[in-house]
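yo

u said u wanted the structure for the complex thing, so here. seqs first:
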Amino acid sequence: MPRLMLSFPSQTTYLSPIELFYRKFMSDFASGSGLCTDEIFLALVEGIVNAVKHGNKEDPGLNVDMELLLTDTELHITIKDRGTGFFPESLADPTHPDNIALPGGRGIFLMKRLMDQVEYSFHPGETVLKMRIACRGGKNGMERH
Amino acid sequence: MEWSVTEETGKTAVVLFTGNINVNDEPAVIQMVKDVLLPKGTVFVIFDLSRVEYVDSAGMGSFLAARSILNKNSGELALASPTPKIEKILSLAGFNKIFKIYDTLDEAKRKVAL
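structre next:
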Protein backbone atom coordinates (compact mmCIF):
# COMPACT_ATOMS: atom_id res chain seq x y z
CA MET A 1 0.00 0.00 0.00
CA PRO A 2 1.34 3.46 -0.88
CA ARG A 3 2.74 5.20 2.16
CA LEU A 4 4.39 8.58 2.69
CA MET A 5 6.27 9.16 5.93
CA LEU A 6 7.80 12.52 6.85
CA SER A 7 9.46 13.78 9.99
CA PHE A 8 10.28 17.46 10.27
CA PRO A 9 11.20 20.10 12.86
CA SER A 10 8.41 22.06 14.51
CA GLN A 11 8.36 25.01 12.16
CA THR A 12 5.48 25.97 9.92
CA THR A 13 7.95 26.98 7.20
CA TYR A 14 8.03 23.27 6.34
CA LEU A 15 4.48 23.49 5.02
CA SER A 16 5.70 24.35 1.51
CA PRO A 17 7.93 21.27 1.03
CA ILE A 18 5.30 19.12 2.74
CA GLU A 19 2.78 20.32 0.16
CA LEU A 20 5.11 19.25 -2.65
CA PHE A 21 5.53 15.76 -1.15
CA TYR A 22 1.79 15.50 -0.52
CA ARG A 23 0.74 16.52 -4.01
CA LYS A 24 3.29 14.17 -5.61
CA PHE A 25 2.00 11.30 -3.45
CA MET A 26 -1.63 12.02 -4.32
CA SER A 27 -0.83 12.50 -7.99
CA ASP A 28 1.11 9.22 -8.14
CA PHE A 29 -1.23 7.04 -6.10
CA ALA A 30 -4.64 8.65 -5.56
CA SER A 31 -5.53 10.13 -8.93
CA GLY A 32 -8.37 7.65 -9.47
CA SER A 33 -9.57 7.59 -5.88
CA GLY A 34 -12.17 10.32 -6.12
CA LEU A 35 -10.56 12.10 -3.18
CA CYS A 36 -10.54 15.89 -3.02
CA THR A 37 -6.84 16.56 -2.67
CA ASP A 38 -7.28 20.25 -1.86
CA GLU A 39 -9.66 19.66 1.02
CA ILE A 40 -7.54 16.85 2.42
CA PHE A 41 -4.49 19.08 2.21
CA LEU A 42 -6.29 21.74 4.22
CA ALA A 43 -7.12 19.16 6.91
CA LEU A 44 -3.49 18.03 6.81
CA VAL A 45 -2.27 21.61 7.23
CA GLU A 46 -4.57 22.17 10.19
CA GLY A 47 -3.31 19.00 11.86
CA ILE A 48 0.33 19.88 11.24
CA VAL A 49 -0.06 23.47 12.46
CA ASN A 50 -1.74 22.26 15.64
CA ALA A 51 1.10 19.78 16.21
CA VAL A 52 3.77 22.41 15.58
CA LYS A 53 2.22 25.29 17.54
CA HIS A 54 0.20 23.66 20.30
CA GLY A 55 1.81 20.23 20.62
CA ASN A 56 5.50 20.97 20.25
CA LYS A 57 5.20 24.69 21.09
CA GLU A 58 7.26 25.49 17.97
CA ASP A 59 10.37 23.92 19.51
CA PRO A 60 12.54 23.15 16.45
CA GLY A 61 14.30 20.49 18.49
CA LEU A 62 11.09 18.48 18.57
CA ASN A 63 9.94 16.75 15.42
CA VAL A 64 6.46 16.24 14.03
CA ASP A 65 5.91 12.86 12.39
CA MET A 66 3.41 12.52 9.58
CA GLU A 67 2.21 9.51 7.66
CA LEU A 68 -0.16 9.10 4.74
CA LEU A 69 -1.38 5.59 4.01
CA LEU A 70 -3.58 4.88 1.01
CA THR A 71 -5.53 1.63 1.04
CA ASP A 72 -7.91 0.40 -1.63
CA THR A 73 -10.77 2.15 0.10
CA GLU A 74 -9.42 4.91 2.37
CA LEU A 75 -6.74 7.48 2.96
CA HIS A 76 -5.35 7.45 6.49
CA ILE A 77 -3.38 10.37 7.93
CA THR A 78 -1.43 10.14 11.18
CA ILE A 79 0.32 13.13 12.77
CA LYS A 80 2.34 12.79 15.97
CA ASP A 81 3.77 15.49 18.17
CA ARG A 82 5.47 15.47 21.57
CA GLY A 83 2.79 17.44 23.35
CA THR A 84 0.99 16.66 26.56
CA GLY A 85 -2.47 16.70 25.01
CA PHE A 86 -5.63 18.66 25.52
CA PHE A 87 -9.35 18.16 25.99
CA PRO A 88 -10.95 18.01 22.54
CA GLU A 89 -14.43 18.03 24.04
CA SER A 90 -13.69 21.43 25.58
CA LEU A 91 -13.30 23.08 22.19
CA ALA A 92 -16.12 25.47 21.40
CA ASP A 93 -18.02 25.51 18.13
CA PRO A 94 -16.33 28.35 16.18
CA THR A 95 -19.48 28.92 14.14
CA HIS A 96 -21.57 29.68 17.24
CA PRO A 97 -22.55 33.37 17.32
CA ASP A 98 -20.57 33.84 20.55
CA ASN A 99 -17.40 32.50 18.93
CA ILE A 100 -17.73 33.43 15.30
CA ALA A 101 -15.55 36.52 15.52
CA LEU A 102 -12.80 34.91 17.58
CA PRO A 103 -9.57 34.63 15.59
CA GLY A 104 -8.74 31.02 16.58
CA GLY A 105 -10.38 27.68 17.25
CA ARG A 106 -11.25 26.65 13.72
CA GLY A 107 -8.54 24.11 12.93
CA ILE A 108 -10.02 20.97 14.48
CA PHE A 109 -13.50 22.06 13.47
CA LEU A 110 -12.43 22.26 9.83
CA MET A 111 -10.64 18.91 10.01
CA LYS A 112 -13.82 17.28 11.28
CA ARG A 113 -15.86 18.81 8.51
CA LEU A 114 -13.44 17.84 5.76
CA MET A 115 -12.58 14.30 6.83
CA ASP A 116 -14.76 11.28 7.65
CA GLN A 117 -13.11 10.63 11.00
CA VAL A 118 -10.80 12.68 13.22
CA GLU A 119 -9.48 11.26 16.48
CA TYR A 120 -6.88 12.45 18.95
CA SER A 121 -5.26 10.09 21.40
CA PHE A 122 -2.87 11.04 24.16
CA HIS A 123 0.06 9.03 25.43
CA PRO A 124 2.97 9.85 27.73
CA GLY A 125 5.04 12.37 25.81
CA GLU A 126 3.06 12.00 22.62
CA THR A 127 -0.16 13.20 21.03
CA VAL A 128 -1.45 11.28 18.03
CA LEU A 129 -3.94 12.61 15.51
CA LYS A 130 -5.55 10.07 13.20
CA MET A 131 -7.75 11.12 10.31
CA ARG A 132 -9.47 8.98 7.74
CA ILE A 133 -11.46 9.58 4.58
CA ALA A 134 -13.09 7.09 2.23
CA CYS A 135 -12.09 7.04 -1.41
CA ARG A 136 -15.62 6.76 -2.72
CA GLY A 137 -18.83 8.64 -2.11
CA GLY A 138 -19.61 12.23 -1.26
CA LYS A 139 -19.24 14.21 1.91
CA ASN A 140 -21.20 17.29 2.87
CA GLY A 141 -23.11 16.87 -0.35
CA MET A 142 -20.05 17.91 -2.35
CA GLU A 143 -18.55 15.89 -5.13
CA ARG A 144 -14.95 14.93 -4.49
CA HIS A 145 -12.51 15.99 -7.15
CA MET B 1 1.18 34.33 -0.54
CA GLU B 2 1.58 37.52 -2.54
CA TRP B 3 -0.64 40.55 -2.44
CA SER B 4 -0.98 43.78 -4.36
CA VAL B 5 -3.27 46.78 -4.16
CA THR B 6 -4.92 46.72 -7.57
CA GLU B 7 -7.35 49.61 -7.17
CA GLU B 8 -7.61 52.62 -4.88
CA THR B 9 -10.43 55.14 -4.87
CA GLY B 10 -10.75 57.54 -1.97
CA LYS B 11 -11.01 55.49 1.18
CA THR B 12 -11.51 52.22 -0.70
CA ALA B 13 -8.97 49.72 -1.97
CA VAL B 14 -8.96 46.33 -3.63
CA VAL B 15 -6.23 43.94 -2.51
CA LEU B 16 -5.55 40.97 -4.77
CA PHE B 17 -4.09 37.90 -3.07
CA THR B 18 -2.28 35.16 -4.97
CA GLY B 19 -1.33 31.69 -3.75
CA ASN B 20 -1.94 30.19 -0.34
CA ILE B 21 -2.94 32.17 2.75
CA ASN B 22 -1.81 30.11 5.69
CA VAL B 23 -0.32 30.38 9.15
CA ASN B 24 2.91 31.82 7.75
CA ASP B 25 1.08 34.70 6.08
CA GLU B 26 -1.05 35.85 9.00
CA PRO B 27 1.37 38.61 10.14
CA ALA B 28 1.79 39.94 6.60
CA VAL B 29 -1.95 40.40 6.11
CA ILE B 30 -2.29 42.32 9.35
CA GLN B 31 0.85 44.36 8.66
CA MET B 32 -0.46 45.24 5.21
CA VAL B 33 -3.64 46.69 6.68
CA LYS B 34 -1.84 48.57 9.46
CA ASP B 35 1.20 49.82 7.56
CA VAL B 36 0.00 50.23 3.98
CA LEU B 37 -3.74 50.87 3.96
CA LEU B 38 -4.50 52.74 7.17
CA PRO B 39 -1.74 55.39 6.79
CA LYS B 40 -3.35 56.39 3.48
CA GLY B 41 -6.76 56.63 5.07
CA THR B 42 -8.00 53.50 3.32
CA VAL B 43 -10.59 51.85 5.54
CA PHE B 44 -13.03 50.26 3.07
CA VAL B 45 -11.20 47.23 1.76
CA ILE B 46 -12.07 44.40 -0.60
CA PHE B 47 -9.94 41.27 -0.52
CA ASP B 48 -10.00 39.79 -4.02
CA LEU B 49 -9.66 36.01 -3.47
CA SER B 50 -9.95 34.95 -7.10
CA ARG B 51 -6.33 33.77 -7.23
CA VAL B 52 -6.18 32.18 -3.78
CA GLU B 53 -5.51 28.45 -3.89
CA TYR B 54 -6.28 27.67 -0.28
CA VAL B 55 -6.80 29.49 2.99
CA ASP B 56 -6.34 27.73 6.31
CA SER B 57 -7.83 28.60 9.68
CA ALA B 58 -4.95 30.93 10.52
CA GLY B 59 -5.43 32.70 7.20
CA MET B 60 -9.08 33.09 8.07
CA GLY B 61 -7.98 34.43 11.44
CA SER B 62 -5.99 37.09 9.62
CA PHE B 63 -9.16 38.14 7.78
CA LEU B 64 -10.89 38.55 11.14
CA ALA B 65 -7.99 40.57 12.51
CA ALA B 66 -7.97 42.80 9.43
CA ARG B 67 -11.72 43.26 9.72
CA SER B 68 -11.38 44.19 13.38
CA ILE B 69 -8.71 46.79 12.64
CA LEU B 70 -10.78 48.34 9.86
CA ASN B 71 -13.97 48.32 11.97
CA LYS B 72 -12.15 50.19 14.72
CA ASN B 73 -11.31 52.84 12.15
CA SER B 74 -14.93 53.08 10.99
CA GLY B 75 -14.19 50.95 7.97
CA GLU B 76 -15.19 47.61 6.54
CA LEU B 77 -13.69 44.50 4.99
CA ALA B 78 -15.43 42.52 2.26
CA LEU B 79 -14.34 39.35 0.47
CA ALA B 80 -14.80 38.98 -3.26
CA SER B 81 -14.74 36.35 -6.00
CA PRO B 82 -13.66 33.32 -4.04
CA THR B 83 -13.27 30.15 -6.07
CA PRO B 84 -15.86 27.47 -5.28
CA LYS B 85 -13.44 25.56 -3.05
CA ILE B 86 -12.48 28.70 -1.12
CA GLU B 87 -16.13 29.67 -0.80
CA LYS B 88 -16.91 26.23 0.59
CA ILE B 89 -14.18 26.51 3.25
CA LEU B 90 -15.30 30.02 4.22
CA SER B 91 -18.87 28.76 4.56
CA LEU B 92 -17.81 25.74 6.62
CA ALA B 93 -16.09 28.14 9.01
CA GLY B 94 -19.19 30.31 9.22
CA PHE B 95 -17.55 33.27 7.53
CA ASN B 96 -20.57 33.75 5.29
CA LYS B 97 -22.40 34.84 8.46
CA ILE B 98 -20.04 37.62 9.44
CA PHE B 99 -18.38 38.75 6.21
CA LYS B 100 -19.89 40.23 3.14
CA ILE B 101 -18.76 37.76 0.49
CA TYR B 102 -19.46 38.78 -3.09
CA ASP B 103 -19.35 36.41 -6.04
CA THR B 104 -17.61 38.94 -8.26
CA LEU B 105 -15.25 41.83 -7.75
CA ASP B 106 -17.55 44.14 -9.71
CA GLU B 107 -20.42 43.37 -7.36
CA ALA B 108 -18.18 44.01 -4.35
CA LYS B 109 -17.04 47.33 -5.75
CA ARG B 110 -20.64 48.40 -6.34
CA LYS B 111 -21.65 47.55 -2.79
CA VAL B 112 -18.61 48.68 -0.82
CA ALA B 113 -18.67 52.46 -0.73
CA LEU B 114 -16.50 53.11 -3.76
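Chain B has five helices and five strands. The domain at 2-102 of chain B is CATH 3.30.750.24 (Transcription Regulator spoIIAA).
cya
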